[in-house]
Design a protein that fits this description.
about 220 residues; alpha+beta; 7-stranded antiparallel β-sheet; globular
């Protein structure tokens, strides 16, 4: 920047810095975060013990629900787990107490590990929907996880949205990624700011691809005319 330009900017009361000096978003691998002690990649027992420790209850109180929470998929996940591991395994559990509701979701682990057949791919933490709770959720998240990768301002019908990830979508100023190749932690405004979601779509995508490749391999036929 030339001296004359700088002097003119000061004279006008405004100094415009080059874009290289503009504040860059904090990019962070959210797979290193935990919600209620649960991290992406934990196996079923690790996750259950982490939740039990966090809420100070016996691990036996943390059980797979009879019906899959909406956040954890359903028969499609159960099918992937059975097809890849060769057996049925629980792929979700939940915990609810003192106005806190938690759901932990799993996908089959690849490479296949019979001792640890499933891996955490999603954690959903919810508290009652009030403006006070939304503010408390953001404050607690910022205190624990640090400066977010993005912040979306509130509007008349929703709360402020914040999120953490390694790759930001500059078009929408959030962590949405069509390639689904990263973990993200966020408090979506559409859910009134009182739900926190930690998720990583990569294990699920890998499981789907693995099964498709297995199907193609079995169907492979050499024509003999």
């Amino acid at each position: 920047m030339k001296l004359g330009t700088i002097l003119l900017a000061f004279a006008a009361g405004v100094l415009v810095l080059p874009s290289a000096y503009a504040k860059q978003p904090r990019l962070v691998d959210a797979s290193g975060f935990d919600v209620a002690g649960v991290k992406i990649g934990m196996d079923f027992e690790q996750a259950r013990e982490a939740v039990a420790k966090h809420f100070n209850v016996a691990p036996g109180e943390i059980r797979s629900a009879k019906y899959s929470p909406p956040d954890c998929g359903g028969s499609d996940v159960a099918w992937r787990v059975k097809e890849i591991t060769g057996a049925e395994h629980p792929f979700h559990f939940g915990y609810k107490k003192d106005n806190v509701e938690l759901a932990v979701c799993f996908e089959p682990r690849l490479p296949v590990d019979k001792a640890r057949p499933v891996t955490v791919v999603k954690v959903v933490y919810q508290i009652p929907k009030t403006k006070e709770n939304a503010a408390a959720m953001r404050e607690a998240a910022l205190s624990k996880y640090g400066e977010p990768t993005y912040t979306k301002p509130s509007n008349p019908i929703s709360e402020i949205e914040v999120g953490w990830c390694a790759k930001i979508n500059t078009t929408f100023n959030d962590c949405t990624n069509p390639k689904k190749d990263q973990a993200k932690l966020f408090i979506p405004s559409i859910l009134d700011g009182t739900t926190m979601i930690l998720e990583d779509p990569r294990p699920g995508s890998a499981a789907t691809q693995y099964l498709q490749e297995l199907k193609d391999s079995k169907a492979k036929t050499k024509p003999k005319f």
